[in-house]
Amino acid sequence: MRKFIGFAAILTFGATGALAASATHFAGSNLLPLAKVSLAQARATATAYRPGQITDQELEKESGGTGLRYSFDIKSKGKTFEVGVDARTGKVLENKAEGPIPD
Which residues pair with 85 in a beta bridge? Predict the structure, then answer.
C-alpha cells in the first residue's frame, strides 16, 4: 500500500485503529497535527465508499489532493482495495483494487 512519491512519511495503525507497536519505527507521527480529518472519520468515509474490513491503514504525505492522506487496505468480496482519504478535506482520492503486487 505504500507509494513513495516525493517525500513520504508513514504512520501505521493496527486494524482496530490502535497505534501499532511498530509505528514508532516510522517517521510521521508529526503529521497527525496537520490532519483536519480524524482517523475515525477517515475510516468511516473509506468504508462508506468501499464496505469491508480494513486490514491496513496509514497516514502519509503523497501527491494528490492536499498532499496528506489516510490510505486504507480494505478486504471486500475476496479482494483487497486501496482507498485513499484526504486528511485535510475528507474527500476520497482513490478507491481501486490492489494489483497482484500491492504498492
Answer: 70, 92
Backbone angles phi, psi at 48, to 5 degrees: -70, -40
Residue bearing cell 514508532: 24
14-44 residue pLDDT tens: 443 433 333 333 335 568 789 999 888 999 9
Grid cell listed for 94:
482513490
Residue 78 to residues 10, 31, 50: CA-CA distances in angstroms? 26, 32, 13
Burial 63-85 (b: 16+ CB within 10 A, else e): eebebbbbbbbbbeeeebbbbbb
Cα–Cα distance measured from residue 74 to residue 80, given in angstroms and rounded to the nearest whole number:
5
60: Cα separation from own chain's centroid: 7
